[in-house]
Amino acid sequence: MRPRGDAGTTLFRLQVKDLSCVIVLEQDSFYRKDTSGRLGGSAGCRRTQEEDVALLELNLSNEEIAAIDAVVDELAQRYDTVESAEFQREAKVFSDELPRRVRLVFNDYRGSEAHGALLVTGLPVDDSLIGATPAHWANKPVPSPSIRVDIAFYLLSCLLGEPIGWATQQDGYIMHDVFPIKGHEKEQIGSGSEELLVWHTEDAYHPLRTDYLGLVCLRNPDDVSTTMADIADVRIDSDTAKVLSEKRFRILPDHSHRAGDHAVVESDPKIAELRARSHARVEQALAEPEPVAVLFGDPDAPYLCIDPHFMKDVQGPVEQQALDVVGAAIDEAMREVVLRPGAVVFIDNYRMVHGRKPFKARHDGTDRWLRRLNVARDLRKSRDARPNALSRVIY
Ligand SMILES: O=C(O)CCC(=O)C(=O)O
Ligand SMILES: [Fe+2]
């Protein structure tokens, strides 16, 4: 993956891919639809397109599904929510019992950094067991109606790192819900619906943002697309790349982290202090965001951190011009993936941006419902923002 240094143009990957491709992932299969309407099936683990290394795909075999089920069985007898600290403490050990091919693929995805996202299909989801799509994420029911999927999803994420949550987001739950919430229709957050959720790096404003964003689909009756683009597929000129590599860009916190939604009374003084500091950090990031680079890491294969919606109106003209250029190039590289029940995607948050197409929420219990995990490669980086070594909640 060397850039092509011709005539001032930086191309982070040589391969050219089909930009009109829509991938639909289903419980036991997926199809990819191109503009001619052709459908293609797949089996086993392979690259989604010969020349396409952005998406790595793993279709679980029946034997693998049965083996994952056996591990889930054991844990589901003892735990009724993945928010349990005991569950979180031992999950990694159980993830070591997932089928070897699955562990090998995840290990390679994590280690090689050769792909923007890993798609896994085949986890069983029983629509009649998970019940109605909830109206809100607060006060989640225990037992979780989707406990078997939750456990399988959590174990898979342990193959990439450590699931983390945010004290300032969804009440500190580790596993988030993504479904439309009444009143959020126009919001630029996961619970919005009617507006295009503009592509973004997850929690771009925060230095401890997740390494991987995991999404599992419980239902998606209207085939609403998740959008994503890999920086490796983005073409920009080298002058723009140079500007983007300098620490001169401001990113504001998104609405999901802002105070208001989560006024919590805290009795533990240490947690109260961490919480106050974290809210102060959000306020500070709103008032006076620390300048950061949009491109960083290896200049030949850079990482990316960008959230145009929350970078509006706070840049100088040169910075805004560079953002506009890379924004248009990212639009060019954008693809759509329709997650169907049982499909899981782990997006590398250091190289892929993601978003969601607009849709009309139903608000009748049948709405699109995803669950989400943030996965950190190294928990120690956030140690001073967590109340103790075992805690996974970042303040
Ligand atoms: O709904 C989706 O497909 C993606 C939502 C999103 O951006 C997120 O959950 O971070
Ligand atoms: Fe997101």
Task: Describe this protein with a few key phrases.
alpha+beta, 8 helices, Double-stranded beta-helix, 395 residues, nine-stranded mixed beta sheet, binds fe (ii) ion, six-stranded mixed beta sheet
Largest sheet: 9 strands, mixed
**Number of distinct helices:** 8
Query: In the CATH hierarchy, what is the architecture at level 2?
Result: 4-Layer Sandwich
Bound molecules: 2-oxoglutaric acid, fe (ii) ion
| Count of individual beta strands | 19
Percent in helix: 25-40%
Find the structural class using helix and strand composition: alpha+beta
Give the CA-based shape: globular
- What's the end-to-end separation, in Å? 37 Å
User: What's the CATH H-level superfamily name?
Assistant: Clavaminate synthase-like
The CATH class name reads Alpha Beta
Q: What is the string of SSEs from the N terminus onward? A: EEEEEHHHEHHEEEEEEHHEEHEEEEE
Strand content: 15-25%
Model regions low in confidence, pLDDT < 50 over at least 5 residues: 1-21, 26-51
Cα Rg: 20 Å
Looking at the structure, the CATH topology is: Double-stranded beta-helix
Structure description:
With 395 residues, the chain is of the alpha+beta class. The chain has one domain: Double-stranded beta-helix (4-Layer Sandwich), CATH 3.60.130. It contains 8 helices and 19 strands. The chain has helices spanning 62-78, 85-95, 100-112, 127-130, 147-158, 238-244, 269-287, 317-332; strands spanning 9-11, 22-25, 30-33, 45-49, 52-59, 117-121, 162-166, 176-178, 197-200, 212-219, 225-230, 235-237, 295-296, 303-304, 335-339, 344-348, 352-356, 369-376, 393-394. The strands form 4 sheets. Strands 4, 5, 6, 7, 8, 10, 16, 18 and 19 form a 9-stranded mixed β-sheet that branches. Strands 3-2-15-11-17-9 form a 6-stranded mixed β-sheet, with no helix packed on it. Helix 1 (62-78) packs across helix 5. The protein is globular, with a radius of gyration of 20 Å. The relative contact order is 0.20. It binds 2-oxoglutaric acid and fe (ii) ion.
